[in-house]
Predict the structure of CBS domain-containing protein.
Amino acid sequence: MLGPAAQVGLHDHERFLKRYPPFRTLDTPTLDRLVRALQVVYRPRGSAFDVTGGLFVIRRGAVDLNGEHYAQGDTLGGGVRVGTAQATTDAWLYVLPPERAGEWLNHPALHAFLSAQLSERLSAPDLGADTGADLSRVPVSEIMQPPVLVPPDASVQEAATRMRDRRVSSLMVDLQDTHGPGQYGIITDKDLRNRVLAGGLPPTTPVREVMSAPARTAPEDITAVSALNLMFRHNVRHLPLVRGAELVGMLGTADLLRLQTRGLGFVVPDLLDAPDAGTLVRLARSLPARASHLYRSGQKAEAIARQVSYAYDALYRRALELTQAELRGEWGAAPGPFAWVLLGSLARRESGLNPDQDHHLLIQSPEHRPYFQALARGVEALLAHAGLPPCDGGVLASNHLWTREEYAAQLRAWFRVPDPQALLNVTIYFDPRVVAGDLDVSEGLRVRLSARHEPAFMDHLTRLAVSQRPPLGFLGRLHTGQDHALDLKVQGLARIIDLARLQALHAGEAGASTFVRLGPGSGAGFLHPDTRADLLGAYAYLLDLRLAHQTAQLERGETPGNRVPLADLGGPQEVHLREVFKLIGRVQATLAAQTGGPL
């Protein structure tokens, strides 16, 4: 024992503790009082000591406890991380022995940190984002406008006059007398342009002939981000809000835009309405900066990725429309239905600021292949100009153009011969989402889910999921390559995605989203609910950390990437990353024991 911390440099100890959770949340007087109560204790390599009941913070060195490695900045004790620890190197610790630790272990910040599940600890903010309007917390009732109604027999001229006088761009049409309680239609200024003026209809045309009915509504208590996601998903600019069957408000994209002036409020409809390829490319290339602004305004990466995915969906759909229009002169209209299928992070709605093209194309007949080959090449070229580079592995529609029958046969072949390449293909093609087209792809879904009934295939897929271990080196330290950086995608996110995919197959979950696959409603599967919750918290934390890094790269004029230099990480981030990687390693070790080890 070296003595009280206050006697060996008070300021230095305060500065150290302030770098790590949970002490960084303490105010200065409280932290000062804690430091004065601490002892600095030296433990030589190989020595054992009991951490039960006390509070132990590793200042230097490393410690093993219950098979886990702990290093600089980690906190032990507190009734959770308890037992006999062993110093694996010479170690210096800040210590509050049990007889003096009670007051501090009951402190709200310390108690919450030490007793929380990993998923809860990782949710604490430590990424340095600016605060601002968080759309996940703002209720739409705070920003909605009063609805303006019109009867269904009113003329379109009367409707246009009411829009002008009330300075609104939409009217609700009351249909309750004819269709029942809570039934409404909607007419917008866009309807007046496209259906009335462009359609050559007279101004006496009744509103009921050009309205959209029934109007898509949402409850008044949803959050702004939920409303935004709903509007993006269904490509609507106006969202009526209801309380039961009562119409209580109207929300427009302009209302949301006031909360995020440089965000994604208008870009989705603008992408869908882009008049030409040049406009589409310009709008698409603004998406990373718009997403970065949302992060700076305080939103979480999960919500931002979902919103960005709707924008990229719009980019794909408009790129397909523009390319089809360009092909019409030589090829005519599309010869049959199709399904353009996204893969990877955009399919899961979980991309960062640097997504690429991952997709394949399903068609009805082999005879249609020449047309759709030309379509695929044109779309891919336009997407590349728009800032979406082709997948390095060539997972592109122009290379993977199948009929539904060919696709199902290919999946079954991968199941029967689960060699490394087949398993790699499965990890790519088992996260699909149709972004455009109306071809029925339900047979492909049934075939994918049937994989859980192939024991050899499932065993090999499990071995693959545990074959790439997290980057923890000697004594649990973060291990990096020669560039002293971690790849958050390959070494962290991808490992959790693999585990979530296994969970989904075991549970029969069809959704591609990692948040759905690990969520409480994903079914029994093979992962314990607490493990799923911790993995989900770890995944969200890695998404946030990557987005913080990529936002900083954009601000420096750099291309966003997934490799984060260790030198750029703060103390809390290092601690949390070690916890994340230890969690992944524990789950992999459990699975490896069940299957006999990795491939």
Remarks:
- The CA atoms of residues 375 and 496 lie 35 Å apart.
- DSSP finds 24 helices and 21 strands in the chain.
- The domain at 3-115 is CATH 2.60.120.10 (Jelly Rolls).
- The radius of gyration is 28 Å.
